[in-house]
Amino acid sequence: MALLLRQLWSPEDETSDVVELLTFPLHQAPTSFCPTLWFTTKNYSTWQEALEHCREHHTDLSSMVFETENLLALREMKPLNIDRVWIGLRYLGDRWLWVNGDPLEYEAWGGVQDHQCPLLKRCGALTIRGQWENRDCHEKLNFICY
């Protein structure tokens, strides 16, 4: 089980540099599958573009099912000076869902409560403070895949 940082495709030079940072257990998952997290450091995308990229090159946008996953992602964001990243959280119908189908049991929403019934900001991001924010889906951010 490992947490890896990966610099993905860059529109400037179209390269893929891979850097392994840490190796340790992510969490005690009920199955033998343990996701590997991939951060983008140059590829700013809308939420939909990030979702498509993750599904094409990895598995999906990352879900933060456990607090441990949230904390590990935060730990890797800080040295990279990334303020916020897209995660696989989306407001559909009348509730927030993880797009990969994981249950939304653990929550880490920030101070403002506009996530409860968002009119325009219907996509989720993880901030450098370790909190989730609802953001405009057309905003361009870095993102985390697994």
TrEMBL record:
Boundaries of every C-type lectin domain copy: 33-146
PROSITE patterns with a match to the protein in the record: C_TYPE_LECTIN_1, C_TYPE_LECTIN_2
Cell wall biogenesis/degradation keyword on record: no
Transmembrane helix found in the keyword field: no
Keywords for the protein's UniProt record, in alphabetical order: Disulfide bond
SMART domains: CLECT
Name of the protein: C-type lectin domain-containing protein
